[in-house]
Predict the structure.
Amino acid sequence: MKDKILSFLKQLADKAKPIIDKARPIVDKGLRFGGHRLQVAFASASGLYWNLSPQNRQRVRLAAVAFTILSLGIVLGRITNVNRTVKIEASDKALKVDKSGILELKLPGIKLNPEIYTFQTAIKAQVPVDIKVPGRLAFNAEKSKVLSARAPGRVERIYAFDGAEVNIGSPVVELYSPEFISAQQEYLLSSKTAKVLESTRTMSDLLGDARITQQAAANRMRNLGAGDADIRSIETTGRTQANLIMRAPLKGVVVKRNVEPGSAVSAGDVIATLADPKQLWFLGNVFEQDFRFVKPGQKMVLQVEAYPGKEFVAYANYVAPTVDPQTRALLIRADIENNDDLLRPDMYASAKLTTGMADAIVVPQTAVVRIREMRYIIIKVGDEAYRRLPVKGYDLNSKTFAITQGVEPGSRILAEGAVLLNDRFAKQED
């Protein structure tokens, strides 16, 4: 152990000798001009030291030892830093940058593990050319209805609240309406009159007038919201109904209810909004650079954040004739069948619209290195040399990427392990 310490101190002395030699002239000059003062100061400090108590002298010795260790650490740190710098400069020789700025990495003596790093040959293939269309989902307005009051009245009862499923003819709300009561009485009176006149053949003109009045009263009841079953019930029972029951005109759900029990309504007030949740629209925005690619009937593949691995197919059925002045985008609409009830209105969705076919090199997503807005792939250019190339292209799906520019057919592309090998490029760049 003693021999190791002596050897270490000898090496330290050898490395510190150049620094001491450079510092010697400065020290000699200082001693020449201020040696007397240093001697006086040393004598004063020595006298102070021996005048201290034993405990304080121990503290001074500990402080001197700590200062010596700190100084030794600084010297060793500088020596180690010099060695580290030398090693980094030596390793930079493994990275080469050509005139176009492409990086080439050489790994002499290193063989990549084939179980981690796999290569494939670049082959051109026909792939669909897609544009991305951001948008949102909405109820199909053609399959939606607004139930509104057709005469003044008061809400007596609500049968279907928000989210309730309804069929055609299901009761939604019950209204007290003086106009409806008046129309029922008119219909009942004209119906009774017509039955009396039917037995008297000599009054055919009066019978015709009674039938006309009866039909007009029935149409008035229909316009107020009554159904044919309600009209037949009045004629059969001979009694009017106290309230008007407004029924669902379609099969779907109550999207929104606008009234409360006991509230007064006027003619035209919205009572409830009904829609079919299985019939939705995708409303997308196409930006100006893509206008020329869009036309009705094109296939669109939709993805939503709620189901990352699932795709929904739709077909464009409408392209707006004008541009939205706020977004500078063109509205495109597509019908979506929501038979599985997975989608909801107002969900954000992104669609891929296929505009044609083009030549590209298809690689797995694991071959693509993404650095901010740039895309790179790594190819093998020799037994121990690899090159990182910037490429252009787009995602075909979650598993494959289409390279349209940057790689020549026949190149050996690193399909698996590109991110790991790129770490070596990044370390060399640093």
